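Quick bug: Methyltransferase domain-containing protein output formatted oddly.
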Amino acid sequence: MLAESGDHAAAADLMNQALEIAPDWAAGWDLLGSFHEKAGNVSHAIAAWRRLEALDDEGTFGARLKLAAYDAGAAGEGTAVGYVEALFDQYAPQFEASLVGKLGYRVPEMLEQMVREEMAKLGLTSVGKALDLGCGTGLMGERLRDAVTHLEGVDISAAMIAETARKGIYDSLQKAELVATLNARRSDIDLMTAADVFIYCGALQPVLAALVRALKPGGLVAFSLEAHDGEEALFLRPSLRYAHGIGPTREALVVAGLEVLRFETAILRFDRGAPITGILVLARRPAIDVSAANEVADGDDRAA
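Here's what came back:
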C-alpha cells in the first residue's frame, strides 16, 4: 500500500522489518531492491539485489540483470532464461491489453508489411514453412497465417503458449528456448519472425548464426530490436531489455552471412510515455551458399 501510494522509502523500511523475520525470502529482497530503486537509493537497491542473487539459484527474479543494468555486475551473453520465463508467465493474461492497448505496440504490423512487400517482389502469395520465435499470444502469427502453409510457434513461457493455443493460429506450438530450438533445425524454414524477442537475448552473434543454419537457402527472416546510437554492440537498459547499436547490428548481420534487404529505424511502442526507437530488419539467407560453392569449385579444380 505504501509503494502504491508512492512512498517507496517507507515501503522499503517496512520490507526491511519483514526481512529481519524472513531473511531467506527471495521475493522480499526483490521487492526491497525495487522500492529502494524507486526511492532513488540505488546503492541500497544494489545491496538488496546482491542478497537476492545469492538466494535465487534459478535466476527467476533477474538479480544479475538488475545489477548489470547499474554496472554492478555482468549480465552474461545469452538469455536469462529463468527470468524471462517467469516474467512472461506472469504477464501472459494481460499481455495484449497492456502491450497493444496501453503502449501502442506496432511491431507485428510493421514486420508483416516488410515481409509481404518482399514476397510481392518475388511474385509469391505464400511460403511453405514459417517459424515464429517468441510467439507470445500470437500477435505476429495471426498476421502471417494466410501467407504460409505451415506455421510453427515457439516460446519460452508455458503461459504464453497456453494463451495462444486458444486462438488456433499455429499448426504446432512448442515451449522451448530460442537458440536451442534453432540449433535443432537444419535448412528447413522458409520464413522466420521474431517480434521484440532478441531484446532479451543479449549478444546477437549466437542467435544469428543459429537462425542462418535453420533457414533454407533463400529463406527470409524479419525481426525487431531496441536501438541505441552508441558504438557499443549492446547495453542493458533499466527495463532489463537490451538495446543494440545500429552500426554493430549491421555488421553482425553481414558476419552471419545474411543478405540485408531492409534495415530501418522506427518507433516500436511507448514506455512510461516515452517513445522506444528500434530497428526493423528483413534479411535473407543467400540462395547460394558462397562458402559451399567455393568448396565445390575447389574440388572440381583438384579433380581436373
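Actually, after a second look the formatting is fine. The CA atoms of residues 140 and 229 lie 27 Å apart. Closing.
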